[in-house]
Design a protein that fits this description.
It is found in: Mitochondrion outer membrane. It comes from Scleropages formosus (Asian bonytongue). InterPro entries: PDZ, PDZ_sf, Synaptic_Scaffolding_LAP-MAGUK. This is Synaptojanin-2-binding protein. Its main location: mitochondrion. This protein is of the alpha+beta class. The chain has 2 domains: 87 residues, PDZ domain (Pdz3 Domain); 33 residues. Helix content is 28%, strand content 21%. Strands 1, 2, 3, 4, 5 and 6 form a 6-stranded antiparallel beta sheet that branches. Strand 4 and strand 5 form a beta hairpin. The protein is elongated, with a radius of gyration of 29 Å. The chain starts with 10 loop residues before the first strand and ends with a helix.
Amino acid sequence: MNGSVHRASTVVDIQLKRGPAGLGFNIVGGLDQQYVMNDTGIYVAKIKENGAAALDGRLKEGDKILAINGHKLENLLHSAAVELFRTAGEDVQLRVQQAPPVPPVNGPSSSRPDNESSFPALGYLGISLATVAVIAVVCYRFKLFTRRHF
């Protein structure tokens, strides 16, 4: 996710109750460890399976956490943000800028129907093979005519 990111501003408030394993997600970013170029914000790196965040279902990997219990997270060192999460208490209020949805990776990569072949892949291969065959025949015949018999 490194690089400039243009986000649609969908901001939501999420209330989580700390479970036995904490809030159930990892964070990245901060003033000293920018996750997104030119952005010192704190982002959700990983949602832990069966953790408080996963069970709630609203927080997603890539979301930007704007505030925790009213404390803004912009321009903080990563360690300072971690400390705010550690000391946030049992009931935690998050203000989150949701990441844009990620397109599925298990689908067709083009709008071509499945029964259509790709001309660039097969057509160029066929043309290349035909060209090589023609050149080979021309070279073979040229050698026959240029041989001198003594």
